[in-house]
Please model this.
Amino acid sequence: MASTQAAAASEQAPTKNPTLLAWVAKMAAMTQPDRIVWCDGSEAEKQRLTEQAVKDGTLIPLNPQKRPGCYLHRSNPNDVARVEHLTFICTPNKTDAGPTNNWMEPEAAYTKLSQLFEGCMKGRTMYVVPYAMGPLGGASTKIGVELTDSDYVVLNMRIMTRMGKAALDMLGDSDDFNRGLHSTGDVNPDRRYICHFPQDNTIWSFGSGYGGNVLLGKKCLALRIGSYLGREEGWLAEHMLILGVTSPKGETTYIAAAFPSACGKTNFAMMIPPKEYQGWKIETVGDDIAWMRPGPDGRLYAINPEAGYFGVVPGTNYKTNPNAMETISKDTLFTNVALTPDGDVWWEGKDGEVPEELIDWQGKPWKKGSTEKAAHPNSRFTAPMSNNPVLSAKANDPQGVPISAIIFGGRRSNTVPLVLQAFNWTHGVFLGATMGSETTAAATGKVGVVRRDPMAMLPFCGYHMGDYLQHWLDMQKSIPQLPKIFQVNWFRQDKNGKFIWPGYGENMRVLEWIVNRVQGRVPTQETLLGWVPRQDQGLNLKGLDLSEEAVLEATSIKEDEWKSELKSQEVFFEQLGTKAPEALMLQRKLLIARLDG
Ligand code: OXD
Ligand code: MN
Model:
């Protein structure tokens, strides 16, 4: 059986790459699919797979007048988010995975998962999906191959990555590719594992169909394996959007920004400046992931390894993100949103009236006024970045863009002020390391509790978090022109629990201050936390309907809150043990001294 499949795999294969052929044959011998299909990324292939997915009920076609080229997918209700407790870093030593990751010994993990994968594709097709993370031909670009038994995964990978023949051509005969194996299995949470083997550049994912667990190029390769490779090779793989902001004078500044999942990265990356900002333009390079490496001119260059957006749907509307609304108006796959009687999609927070009747995300009838959500809070769109009206031309540039500022932002209802600038790189790394955020629906678990989320990488760092922070500190030696580092918090609430800062397009005001600081144009005021906008020459608040007290509240620094914040940071640093970088411990002592002084 195994040798027949090996022969079948190599006969049909559009490649002679011996390592790839041997690996596909070996995985096929284990999983025993009925058929092996090599994906070429063509239009014809997309049509064929879409028709098949509609036939087998995986996709529901939407009204072509209202949403041309769009489909709805309903996942198993037990499979709607990333599963951090079932995600493992499988390094030979437990300490290499560190205290913030689940760990399994590699051989034990291979053995355990082999039992699940054994024969799991009987009666199914194994798709071989070659893909590139990054613009084709770029020096930073990496190749992966995902083997999957899900046509939904193939159709999503086709949007999210540069997939098919072009990726295979870029790989040629090289053995330098990520080996990804995925099966939806029986979608049983008790038999669900997302395992990463950084030393083997390998990912095995079993028992889920949810994007973050199964689109292996995204969180698994671009962040977990990517961060491991970044440390080995001297670059950074980060959970960051990348945007370009162009002033009326035509000067473009590129900025990378880390926010935890479902905290508005996509909105920020596609923001439309308010009317007071005529002549300013924001363009998106990426909305979720940045790969950054020092360039020949001494600056830090970033690429977006992805080709599409896998964004949170609820809350998206023409006020919060008009460009996303345009982006998802065609050729988009929706997962777990509600269906309207006329074949369109609906979600909480969409513009217009709430429909009287819907089919909810689980396929059940839903009536206006119901206490149940019609769309799942973590329902998603998968849309090609080429749909984005403000896509930067640089999104396809293999060189990437030079980053002038890095922003760290969390979701904090108190404590963290609207914006501040770090005193220097080391202090900036401290700000990133001590990020905290209130949890969201993007991962299973309780929503709304503060957890430490260094650089928004807690669920995505593929090695010891202490080593990761040290790598960030070390990077300053290889970047002569360091980006400036900032911290922001759009989510501060007043005593009635209302957001103080209006956010969305109005975040342009904070962005302008950041650009002005980077260009050395505005003076600033020193505080114990960092530099903040001065009241006289600070944030431009013209035309903003916000009282002076509210601005003061959004930007205030309360010493008692900072004393408890420091305690919570201490618990995190203690977790890192001896791997907590010395330079960060010194930053902590300096902050305590400033607070006590
Ligand atoms: C995502 C996430 O899907 O961070 O981007 O969960
Ligand atoms: Mn993300």
The chain has three domains: 2-59+78-233, 238-304+395-596, 309-387. The domain at 2-59+78-233 is CATH 3.40.449.10 (Phosphoenolpyruvate Carboxykinase; domain 1). Residues 559-576 form the longest helix (18 residues).
